[in-house]
Hints:
Elements: H1 2-47, E1 53-54, H2 61-72, E2 79-80, H3 84-96, E3 102-107, H4 111-114, E4 117-119, E5 131-138, H5 141-144, H6 146-154, H7 159-170, H8 176-186, H9 188-195, E6 205-210, H10 214-229, E7 233-238, H11 241-250, E8 255-261, H12 266-272, E9 276-293
Amino acid sequence: MKGKKLFILWAVLLSLALIVAGCGSEETTGTEETGADNGGEAVQETEKGFEHITGIDAGAGIMQATEQAIEEYGLDIELVPSSSAAMTAALGAAIENEEWIVVTGWTPHWKFAAYDLKYLDDPKGVYGEEESIHTLVRQGLEEEHPSAYQVLDNFYWTPDDMNQVMVDIAQNDMGEFEAAQKWINNNRDIVDRWIEGVEPVDGEQLELVYVTWDSEIASSHVIALVLEEIGYEVELTPVEAGVMFAGVASGEADAMVAAWLPGTHAAYYEDYRDDFVDLGPNLDGAKIGLVVPTYVDIDSIEEIRQK
């Protein structure tokens, strides 16, 4: 009898414990629901903000434009410089986890083939309209190396052409020269137009400078191999944007195929415009701006907010 009473007492205590636990669970759930109803959206909005804007090298024109955008749009967010490779690595890691990220972006670039991305609208026009990439050569190059001058003057391709080289380097694990040579082999008709009627040379030396953006790595390696086809020995030198312009303007470098105009490199162009020869665009339809994955549910620079 005593044992039966103890058993009943134990059952009652256990039931009370379960009721208390259940109430606690409901209370917690209620708090979460209340949070969802009252503050959950605010929390969610905070989580969907950005840590910072992920940039590239500090001297790039797109970084200057982004500093201007932060000021003109009144954004309370930091621009963090890195490099082209570090920017795309951060972008890939964020996309893998569906995290919010905003980066300085430009096209042509292989990341648009690899990921679903979008440019944020720029109603104030800070980043300008479409750009062209120009070929600039040092003064005197036409007289001293007329064959190189002619090839560089003839050099022109499309964003799709450039993208093929970039994708092979970035996604297909090809070396820069390997990817460039593949494109040349597959587009012999285009290359033959660049070198048509050009007099071959015998081991004359040239130096090309370029910024280490994926786009400029592609174009510089392609044109270097084409110049080597007609007998030049070409040295490729990666530098920062300001050094690239200064090198061609001073004559220390012979040429570059990496001047983004009229916006991205406008300041450098104006500083040195009397000291080099502009052969005009080698690619049209380029663009710069701020880029996010398509799952990020904002559409304009005005909507950027800190996490």
